[in-house]
Every structure is written in C-alpha cells, then in structure tokens.
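Issue: copy button drops trailing tokens. Both records pasted manually instead:
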Amino acid sequence: QILTLVPDVIHVFAQVVVSPDESDEVKTTIGKAVSHLISVYGQQMQPILSALPPAHANALAAFASRR
C-alpha cells in the first residue's frame, strides 16, 4: 500500500535536499532513507528517480551516497 506513495515521498525528499534552508543532518538522513529504498526496491526506484529534475536527482544521489 505504501509503494504507491513512494514517488511523492521521493519528490519531497528531493526538494528538501536542494533547499538551502535545511541542515546537512536532515539531508544526510534523507540520503540514508533513499539509499535504503534503492537497496530494497532497486529496479522499482529507477523510474521514480529518473523522473526527477536533474538538479534534484543529482542532489539526492549525492546525499544517498553518503553513508
């Protein structure tokens, strides 16, 4: 049931990580959550991430790669 909401959640996460008003701590936590989603749902996540604007996708990827 929650999988239908993942695209919306990823979109919000992407907006947060590009926001200059949010702390690195919050952005890093979002990155960990995205990394987990990718590790669990791999192929299902690719179209969601590909649909993001490039700047958002790149920022999200940068924080997701922090561990």
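Record 2 (pasted manually too):
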Amino acid sequence: MVKANRAIFLVLVALFFIATVNCDTTTTICKVKVSELAECLPAIAGKSPSKPTKSCCAAIGKADLHCLCNYKSEFTKFGDPTKAMALPKQCGLKLPRECNKKFF
C-alpha cells in the first residue's frame, strides 16, 4: 500500500511540474512568447556569443521592439544588454530610435 501511495504521489508531482512548465511557455513579453525569446540566449550570453539563429530572428521579428526597449535591466540577468540590443540589426531589423536614447 505504501508503494502504491508513493507512486501516486510521484505521478502527481510529475503532472504538477509538467503543468507548471507548460504555463511558463505561454507567457508573453512584448507580443512574443518567452520560450521563443529564449532562442536568443546563446546570442547574448558568454564571452563569445553565437550569431542569432533563424528561430531567434523570427522571435525578434514578432516582438514589439518599442516594448522590448523597456527591458534592458532584465537583459543583464541573461547576458550582455548591448548584445541584446544589437539583435534586431543582426536579424535585419531596425531598432527604434527611442531605444538608443534609453540605453546608450
């Protein structure tokens, strides 16, 4: 009986974890899913970040860039804010002029 209760408990914990993860992937910032923006982390993190991938550029293309300008302080948690603000240009997009005033 104890083994059965433990198994049920573990299944419930696993289901709770899956539900929690699924909720986080639907969170949006500036009209783009957080999970999609996460595709850009390799392009802003570390000493020698990689070039943005097609999926990163697709996420940046969907985003409200004016809105993203307000998140510079958040970028420091994940990588270099200057590199983050360079992503639109690297993806062939133009960064709104107002963003430059907010960051540099």
